Amino acid sequence: MTMLLSKSSTLSVCLIALDHMIGTSITLPIEMLFAAKIIGSSLNAHYPDLTLMSASHDCKPLEMIGGLRLLPDCCYLDIDVCDLIILPALWRNPRQLLQRHPELLSWLQARYRDGALICAAGTGAYLMAGAGLLDGKPATTHWHYFDQFETLFPRVILKRHHLITQSGQLFCAGSVNSVADLMIHLISRFFDGSVAARVERQFSPEIRRPLNDILYFFERRNAHEDETIITIQQWLHEHLAEPISMRDLAEHFFLSQRSLNRRFKDATGQSPVEYLHHLRLTASRDLLKNTNLSIAELALHTGFQDASYFCRLFKQKNQVTPSDYRVSVRRKLFTL
After folding, report:
1. How far apart, in whole angstroms, are the C-alpha atoms of residue 184 and residue 189?
2. Local structure of 265: helix, strand or coil
3. Do 50 and 189 share a domain, yes or no?
4. Residue 30: in which H helix or E strand, if any?
5. Which one of 217, 250, 280 terminates a domain?
6. In this predicted model, what pLDDT tens digit does every residue of 177-193 receive, in sequence order?
7. How confident is the model at residue 334 (pLDDT cuts 50, 70, 90)?
8. CA atoms within 13 A on the CB side of 315
9. Domain membership of residue 113 as a residue range
10. SS3 81
11. What CATH number did the domain enclosing 268 receive?
12. Which of 31, 130, 154, 304 is at 20 to 30 A from 251, Cα to Cα?
């Protein structure tokens, strides 16, 4: 998957604030992005300079559900340039939103044309659809409004069985928990995997699943058309626990090792070894959460013949040792 936005010296994020919104649908992204900024600073590496702005239609204090009040930083009509826009979920029937804020729909259209990435939490997808941005594209929203959404926006491809959808610059997350999954993904793109892993550890790692497991990605079927590489990917899924030599893998599929590496990288953006490590580490996290296998046994179950190498690679990718990961997850899962 490729992002339309790349790392730069600045990352400008606009969080749209509306009356009777579900506050966590924008406060959670704020906290996760701010955590990424702090963690990035502590690593003394070159990461984007993050700017967060909450914006409403008139800058006046507004009320969230539960009576909490928010003072927006600015009016969104005064913002001409931003990299990322987050649209909140609404507590009340979102249909009324479209009549109340026509200027917001026009502003979203302009920012989309400028290349901004736009993310909607839950019923915030109504705003993207109302602006016509989702016509002919996939989307999801809060399950309670599926039927209404489909009736109002028949040109949108509603994905009822996916918690997150992507089409180019547009993301929809069906729930606040899905927003957390999406933010980890975006942080890994705007910062890197190391920062994302540390943020994940602060925000409930036990409930997260890899984004690709829950994402409907509109361009996925067109991402690559190399049928041989697709077959190899499936084979690796089915044999990840077995010892796998890249040389033997290439021979098995009647390729030279150089051709295998080149075609796999062109098709997926990863080398075959990187892809296999991703599969094995994902499986290892599930086993750490759900079994009492020793680290050595777990390494063998996921295809690592050397437990020490497994531990080094796990820490490199997740910023924590397998044992510490298991302790932190089990504490949250099982402690009353």
Report:
1. 9
2. helix
3. yes
4. helix 24-42
5. 217
6. 788 888 988 998 888 88
7. very low
8. 9
9. 10-217
10. coil
11. 1.10.10.60
12. 304
